[in-house]
Amino acid sequence: MFFHCMSLSLTHTCNILFNLIVFVGYRILAKKGEGTFSEVLKCQNVENRQYYACKRMKQHFDSIESVNNLREIQAMRRLSPHANLVELKEVIFDKKTGTLALICELLDMNLYELIRGRKHTLPEEKCKSYIYQALRGLDHMHRNGIFHRDIKPENILIKDGVVKLADLGSCRSVYSKQPYTEYISTRWYRAPECLLTDGYYTYKMDIWGIGCVFYEILSLRPLFPGSNEVDQIAKIHDLLGTPNQTLLNRLKKSRHMNFNFPYKERCGISHLLSNGSRDSIQVIEVMCTYDPEERPSAKQVLRHPYFKYLRDADKRSAAIARNASTNEPPPVLPSKHHQKRLKIAKKDGDSLKEMYFPKATTRKQLNESVLDMPSKPLGRTLPKVGSYTLPKIPIATTKAAFSPRLPSLLQQDSSKKISNTPSDRIDYGKFALPPIDKI
Fold first, then answer.
1. What residues act catalytically?
2. 355 membership: H or E segment, kind and range
3. Which tops the pLDDT comparison, 283 or 8?
């Protein structure tokens, strides 16, 4: 009897969903995932046959005003479009049932699904690209006054190498008043200020979460897998060391946390991450700085030398897109032959001047070899030309070459009419000055 009632309720729910989606022109295909406040369905548009992700809210809404006031919808509308944020396509609200569904673009998987069950680690260049794109999306959010508050591998989606941040249901305004909700982000990716205070944290908590995600996709294991709040803090102190008393006193805004932590030395992340480069370890340690005031912003992390190649690639692609929009030829990039010569020159310590102008070692010699004309004539020499006197031109034949002169205003007789000959026909209006007030 119990199973029969449960099957009837599930059937009733599916029928309501099916009627809702089909009514607005979408067909449900499969279920992608489920969270505390929503579930994600894969659907297809009936008209254009395109696939989308349908995020159906479990909460019921009474009016369209409450839907428009939803923080996630407001944030996605403000932040769209951006290459590293999931785009909101359509908002569907059924007044009869109070059901709300968000139609978004569909991606293949998230970062957790990408690394789940893998036996071999991903190449570091791929992980670098994923984190770089996630930081770009995060920087766009922070510059627009919004921080995510729930950064984790499940909320970072990927398709064809393109990474996009998703699930803005927990986002808040950077300028909103503290304290915020205490238990907001997933425990493993929760910053120390979120663990030690009663909601006194800032957008810097997102940077901590990105650092934890970077370590996880590099090593295929979480950085701080705490079983509870106390164990989470203990695991952070085991790796980063116990903070000084000044920092603890500044963070001491929690009534339920005991701040008598045992002293532990900092051991760092380098001994845990054997397959990471020195720069990648440095970036993780910078993002996972204990003190939130010393933790860098997303823009500062993007300027790290570790991401220089990706920054240059973005600049080149932006320049090509700009030139394509203005119908200008794209910038000439160095050929493979020149790139090879540049690498050889850089390896041997040669300069560009020595490589392309081997004989010109000084600035003076360089100018003489490239810019100056040759001192000797090239090819066959021509005989010298003697002096030659031009014939005199009679004055009568050059009368038409002279331009007419303006008659003097003092000598001009007002009663005398000006003849209409071509040499004397002058339009005095062309020489009149404009009024002063119109200059």
1. 150
2. helix 352-356
3. 283
